[in-house]
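User: Can you help me understand a structure? I only have the sequence.
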Amino acid sequence: MRRRLKALHAHLDARRSVRFFSQEAIPIDVLEQAIRIAGTAPSGAHKQPWTFCIVTDPALRKRIREAVEEEEYRSYTDRMSDRWLEDLQPLATDHVKPFIEEAPALIIVFKRVHEVDMETGQKHPNYYVQESCGIAVGLLLAALHEAGLAALTHTPSPMNFLAELLERPDNERAFLNIPVGWPADDATVPNLSRKTLDEICVHYGGSQEKGCK
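Assistant: Let's start by predicting it. Here is the structure, written out as tokens:
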């Protein structure tokens, strides 16, 4: 088990968020299989409160980019604090998001805040929707990385326009936009490091246990 976990850590530790994509098409069935894996995530009361929308249509991706950049411009110029902008500097990001059109596919994740009985119109609640969708997206990112694909977790805020552009039902709210594809030949990523085990793990066992504080 230690060998398997060490190998898995080494594999996932190589994952990076990518903003420069090849425009080469990717097999839709690969994305569907990754979404099947995401769908194995645990969820509150097993409600599975998620919808994954695969967007490959160039015209629609262009419209999404235009709407995203409009919202992002407001965020970068009016909504974000000086500290927030300072924290973003190592990533060299701004309101211009060409990767939305350059990536051959977007996986836009919607959280389902409730379910609707199609016969009666009655609403049935979902539980721990935010947490459930977060776990599912984690599995999705791991699956895409396993397939050799690059991805980016993109969160324009607010994201209401995504539900409108994709004509999603009223019980769905945009949760995350994930551009996905192969990285461009000249793609670069920031030289960042992850926290060590001692920085993220606190141990409350007996004194004989070692490995994290």
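Now, to help you interpret it: The CA atoms of residues 42 and 158 lie 27 Å apart. The radius of gyration is 19 Å. Let me know which part you'd like to focus on.
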